[in-house]
Amino acid sequence: MTRERLAIDVGGTFVDFVSLDEDTGEVRIEKSPSSGSLERRFFEGIDNLAVDLTALNTIIHGSTMVINTIVQEKGARVGLITTKGFRDVLELGRGNREEIYNLFYRPPAPLVERYLRLEVSERLGARGELVAPLDEAEARAAIRQLKAQDVEGIAVIFLHSYLNPRHEERMRALVKQEAPDIEVTISSEICREWREFERSSTTVLNAYAKPKLARYLRALQGELARRQFPGALSIMQSSGGITSLQAAREGPVRTIASGPAGGVIGVAALGKQLGERNLIAADVGGTTFDVALIIDGQPLEQTEHRINRRPVLQPTIDIVSIGAGGGSIAWLDEAGGLRIGPQSVEAEPGPACLDMGGELATVTDAQLLLGYLDPDYYLGERMSLNVRRAEQVVKERVAEPLDMSLIDAAAGIVHLANMNMAFAIRNITIERGRDPRLFTLVCYGGGGGLFAGFLLNELDAARAIIPLNPATFSAWGLLNADFGEDYVRTFLRAFDAVSAAALKSELMELEAEARGRFAQNGVKPAQTLVQFHAAMRYYGQEHTVKTPIQPSDFDDGLVSLRRRLDEYHERSYSLKLPEANAEIVNLQVSIMGVASKPIMKKVSSNPSGSALKGERGVTIRGYDGRFSAPVYDREGLGAGAVIEGPAIIEEWTSTALVLPDQSATVDDYGNLIMKRAQA
Q1: How far is 81 from 629, CA to CA, in rounded Å?
Q2: What CA–CA distances, in Å, run from 555 to 494, 503, 512, 552, 588?
């Protein structure tokens, strides 16, 4: 009996499948459009791969469902119950004006309308002590009132409940009694940190996405049971760790960056295999471009981020996402300037060249006109591209209004998409004091290979890597993830006032809670690792730096921990203040169950000439004339093969473009290593 694992990554345009035989290391891939019912697409891909579910050990699932629900504001009708006097926290926010020079700035409207935000009498003090008991009569009345309004979810946020959850837990029990069909979220289980507005926002977002995700996961669970799947369906979290289906169902906000996180974990694993410690992970999908940094072999993390301008307090890989991808729409602004994205045609109707009813010009349409894509070999000949429709929409939407030739318009579309992606990478490198020339660029996703060469030149990076099977790389990354849970607790103390013994005691208590929850989720890994971190800052700062806590720190009176704050602050902001007073804001325990990792198999050596398929005319902006570029079949390229640009390298799920002043070399594991001639 084979030991097989399956990873499934649901994106905005395609659902990606990677099947791994753990005994041989053999990898099989599949793709399916993410249109229509995602549950149907989930099992359609499994059937196409001919996976025997009855013999399968594990399914690891990453998805963009939660982030898409929040960004598109297509979540559930939600009610909120809070402490008397705090009904308008969501609306008041921080009371500031985030875009101070924007005269037309308006904060995002609360996802819960005011008449659905109700108050009850209860109060805990700033240390979690009881001030006033929960008025259960008021609580039941509030639940009935929301039930009468047909809400699908209820968010419960009581003051200081991050220190003492007793009132929220009782409120949840009352909701189950009065309205058992309504999904309930309590803040103390989603966010054990201070900051009322951010905690409220996080809890409401969880309640907003929970009913939709719960229905989806129940449908998957039911069909898997019907098909006699004996293993576990695990879900990828934004933090890069995988968790149980039940934990994800209760805390969907933890899976906001579920899909992109898989790709970043995959880049870290690839870098480890290739001896690369500093990498830029660049995921070019159909809808978004996601970029993250790997520093010293580890993805950068953050404890707070914003989704659709709404704060989320959850540990997550630091990923910057912009609306740029193959389906990004080319349009003209009021001044007649050409813009790309952030709007996308998504899987339906898709780019015009797919002949599925699309009427707008997209990046994919432009790439087809420039010769980068073979109209008869798209998605392994499963789909054909209509060149005439691409010409029509680019001509009508861009070329004629700007009085440009068709080819110049298409080249302009691709160039602007390249610039948007380069700016996103500069945002997490140069703007944070890091030099992109010192990083290796890893481009993946369905469009990664078509943008790698341009980004390599624009960023002046040392080299770019296009991994094997780049279009399903994020799904492969899921197979490299460990089971993981992160638990955060507010611990606001001046650093000088904290003893090593007190800090250790607090961490041990938090670890015990984490281990209990880990076991409760049903995860039983062969090996478990625990890491401690402190969110620290200098006095006068608003934001914190996540700083590791080592066991040896308790032996030297926390002197090493204080020095480590300076080291990590300098790493994040290129600045350190060793003489400044510091404070600890939050403590975090990360518990990981180590899972087995895929084996990267070496590829055989074949001469590049044996992979030559023919030639195709291509136009590349910045280079004179139209080139006749040789086209290679990537599967026929063996280790050591060198392809000089201009050239096109095709595989059934994606295409790579090697620019005229670049070369691509196949390494021992089948990765394409792209370099500039002068490098």
Answers
A1: 63
A2: 19, 12, 22, 5, 20
CA–CA separation, 502 vs 495, rounded Å? 12
CA angle 436, 439, 441 (to 5 degrees): 95
497 with 391, same domain? no
Listed residue (328, 352, 349, 351) closest to 340, CA to CA: 328
pLDDT at 609: 64
Instruction: Look at residue 522 in the predicted model and tell me its pLDDT.
Output: 59
In this structure, are 57 and 94 located in the same domain?
A: no
Tell me: the pLDDT tens digits for 90-106? 888 887 777 888 888 88
Task: Classify 482 as helix, strand or coil.
Answer: coil
Burial class (CB in 10 A: 0-12, 13-18, 19+), 201: buried
Domain count, the chain: 4
Distance CA(235)–CA(217), nearest Å, equals: 10
Sign of CA dihedral 124, 126, 129, 131: negative
Matching residue, tokens 């926010």: 93
Q: What is the residue range of 26's domain?
A: 4-70+215-232
Q: Distance (Å, rounded) from C-alpha 69 to C-alpha 182?
A: 19
Confidence at residue 523, expressed as pLDDT on a 0 to 100 scale:
59
Q: Does residue 230 have a cis bond before it (omega within 30 degrees)?
A: no
Q: Return the pLDDT at 224.
A: 92
Verify that 99 and 185 share a domain, yes or no. yes
Is 666 within the bounds of a domain? no
Where the chain has pLDDT below 50, the residues are: 1
Domain CATH number, residue 47: 3.30.420.40
